[in-house]
Specification:
This is PH domain-containing protein. By secondary structure, this protein is of the alpha+beta class. It has 2 domains: 119 residues, no CATH class; 59 residues, no CATH class. The chain has 5 helices and 9 strands, in the order βααββββββαβαβα. A 6-stranded mixed beta sheet has the order 8-1-2-3-4-9. A 3-stranded antiparallel beta sheet has the order 5-6-7, covered by helices on one side. Helix 1 runs antiparallel to helix 2 and helix 2 packs antiparallel against helix 5. It is elongated and about 60 Å long. The protein starts with a strand and ends with a helix. The relative contact order is 0.19.
Length: 190
Amino acid sequence: MQPAIVFRAAASRGYAVATWVVAAAVLAAFAVNGGAAEVLRYGALPLLLAALGWAAFWRPVVLVEPDGVRVVNVISTTWLPWAAITGTRTRWGLEITTHDRKVGAWALPARSAIGRWTRAKRDVPVVSSLHRLDSVEAGGADPDVVAGIVEEHRTGHLAGAAARPERHLEILPAGLLMTTAGLALVSLLL
């Protein structure tokens, strides 16, 4: 992984672990209550919950790199070079705009009223300069901090095809979610 400042919601990893614990408890309850037959019949439901926990809470991240911003969402990843970025918004969470689209960051939702109030009581996190960045470092969970970095480095003019945003559907999370959802649906219909 190249040097980057990593931003993600503060509680997202905790939510992922909580969904996995609940999924494991439900799977264990199926095993204790009905044995292997019940696990085979209904086991896809907690597997779907675990897959959702990973895709929705563990995976999403915003990586601010020396050459641009990588937004990893639930089933897609978008690369935004600095020259393609025209602005940012943080009303409902981090949203980065380009000439032809808006890219929302699942990893950085808007702060709650309590979160905004407590943020006002503490210092803004110190993040390294992108020019001196030589490793991966944590940047925190504040969409306003990311927006400030992006606004400072964006150029907003397209310098050719290399400066175009690139969005890719990620096969692993999309396939995992579709497979577990399909299995859960089949188990409920049988």
